[in-house]
Write a structure and sequence with these properties.
The chain is mainly β and 267 residues long. The chain has a single domain, classed as Alpha-Beta Complex (hypothetical protein yedk fold). 14% of the residues lie in helices and 37% in strands. Strands 3, 4, 5, 10, 13, 14 and 15 form a 7-stranded mixed sheet that branches. A hairpin with a 3-residue loop joins strand 3 and strand 4. The protein is globular. It starts with a strand and ends in an 8-residue tail after the last helix.
Length: 267
């Protein structure tokens, strides 16, 4: 969660949350109504970041992060979501199935975002942003919404600001600058899991936004701990957009797989 986002806001609605918000393209002044597909990698969406480490600015970036070391854009791998942690994938087996690196006690070794090549430079370097959302769209293969493509939206129809990372990729041949971003994801909250998804976007209280955006200097590990400590529970509602295609049940997880999914709960 999630590969598709919607942003619907009234004129000036985003600016109400940020004193002195710079709006170079006048998007917030007019109001915003867009739908961006991260898997397409060439659709833009608005993000809020700090310019010159002090001024909030509304910038438009491509939804799927391209790391600075990539030789091409779009980046070849799916980077519209950046997971906080996951079991580390190891070498490929002889039969082609993926293996996981394991510790001596045979449990999977966890890989953290501050060490993942695609995201570590942006994460450790503090290239942080807030992504305004009015909907996060996902396919649900289990739970109450199984068999449907569902939009998770703020219950009060407001705008939710999710944590994100950005990187302005520079074409090594032409010098062209391509602005990109990704959404951070982590273990799903109970509502999202109950409706059929195994991960969730992350939001924090508005009083902590300035620290997230760079007013507080942090190492990668400190930033990771900050997120885990400050995460809050959004109030969600769901709306079915359409049914999944016939045969969707073949992709449904087994009960044993569902038991392995960690569910985030507020502290």
């Amino acid at each position: 969660m999630c590969s598709v986002i919607t942003v619907s806001s009234r004129a000036g609605q985003i600016g109400q949350f940020f004193r002195g918000l710079l709006d170079p393209e006048g998007a917030d002044t007019r109001g915003i109504n867009i739908r961006a597909h991260g898997f397409l990698k060439k659709e833009t969406a608005p993000v809020v970041l700090l310019q010159n480490n002090s001024e909030p600015v509304l910038a438009w970036k491509y939804f799927s992060l391209c790391p600075r070391w990539s030789k091409t854009w779009p980046f070849e791998f799916e980077t519209y979501n950046a997971r906080m942690s996951r079991p580390r994938r190891g070498r490929e087996s002889a039969k082609g199935s993926s293996l996981f690196d394991s510790s001596s006690d045979r449990e999977n070794v966890e890989e953290y975002i501050y060490s993942v090549p695609s995201f570590r430079d942006a994460f450790n370097g503090g290239q942080t942003c807030l992504v305004p959302l009015s909907g996060a769209v996902e396919s649900c293969y289990f739970g109450e919404s199984a068999g449907n493509i569902v939009r998770f939206s703020p219950a009060n129809d407001s705008v939710l600001f999710a944590l994100g990372l950005w990187n302005d990729w520079v074409n090594p041949e032409s010098g062209e600058i391509v602005p990109t971003f990704t959404l951070l994801t982590d273990d799903p909250d109970e509502y999202v899991f109950r409706h059929g998804h195994d991960r969730g976007i992350i939001s924090i209280d508005s009083k902590d936004w300035s620290d997230w955006l760079g007013q507080r200097r942090m190492s990668g590990k400190e930033r990771f701990d900050f997120i885990r400590a400050k995460r809050v529970q959004p109030e969600w509602r769901t709306e079915v957009e359409r049914a999944l295609k016939q045969g969707w049940m073949r992709r449904a997880p087994q009960p044993d797989d569902l038991k392995k999914i960690r569910i985030w709960k507020p502290a």
